[in-house]
Design brief:
By secondary structure, this protein is of the alpha/beta class. The protein is built from 6 helices and 5 strands. About 45% of the residues lie in helices and about 20% in strands. Strands 1, 2, 3, 4 and 5 form a 5-stranded parallel sheet that branches.
Length: about 160
């Protein structure tokens, strides 16, 4: 069965790299079913997480529309889902994630929805898996190790490598 993912993200970096990142995870899991992505829906984090703003529901509706259109294009049996992917920043991820997921499911109870809250900035996720990208797009091979991964943003390290 083909899986189609409609991501909702907060930054342009995520828009660019989330399909590649999730495809690599999919391959790592040795999934034999195909995975497809719709163009990620971009939202402002502070508005997406604010309980009094309708931004989360609006972005879910936008992602569901893209998902529905893509599902109709695929002839084989498919499963579609919306994936909310945000940074925790200063919020507690174990509180923010379930709250957003509950709000999202209330907005669209007819859709499979998952919510992932990155404890550190999303860029750190890329850096954590950077060893698999050694030698690609001008990255050094091998990549030098990074110190104090949990304490600092990975943006400066990644920029230095590029």
């Amino acid at each position: 069965m083909t899986l189609v993912v409609a991501p909702i993200v907060e930054g342009h970096a995520e828009v660019e790299c989330i399909p590649t990142l999730l495809s690599r995870v999919w391959q790592f899991l040795r999934a034999t079913e195909p995975i497809h992505f719709v163009v990620p829906t971009l939202g402002k984090r502070d508005k997406l997480i604010h309980p009094k703003f309708p931004d989360l529901a609006n972005k879910i509706a936008e992602a569901c529309k893209k998902l529905s259109q893509r599902l109709m294009q695929i002839k084989s049996p498919t499963l579609g889902m919306v994936l909310i992917l945000l940074d925790a920043e200063k919020d507690c991820s174990k509180e923010l994630g379930p709250r957003l997921l509950e709000a999202a499911r209330k907005a669209r109870s007819d859709t499979d929805i998952a919510c992932v809250i990155a404890e550190k900035m999303f860029e750190n996720w890329i850096v954590a898996g950077a060893s698999t990208l050694a030698g690609i797009n001008g990255l050094p091979d091998p990549l030098p190790p990074r110190d104090q991964f949990e304490e600092r943003s990975g943006v400066a390290w990644l920029e230095k490598q590029l």
